[in-house]
Write a structure and sequence with these properties.
The chain has 45 residues and is mainly alpha-helical. It has 2 helices and no strands. Helix 1 runs antiparallel to helix 2. The two termini are 26 Å apart. The mean pLDDT is 85. Pfam families: spore_CmpA. This is Cortex morphogenetic protein CmpA. It comes from Paenibacillus vini.
Amino acid sequence: MPKWLSNQIMRAFHKRDRRQIVLLNDCWFFYYNRQGANNESSNLQ
């Protein structure tokens, strides 16, 4: 997980900002799935 994303998530939890937590969670899963797809495609070649 990128450090900036981790910091943003920690800040959102500290402030109890549910909207921000959901948004950042969606960003993390998008990033994670995209990284996984890139790794799989590079393994195929």
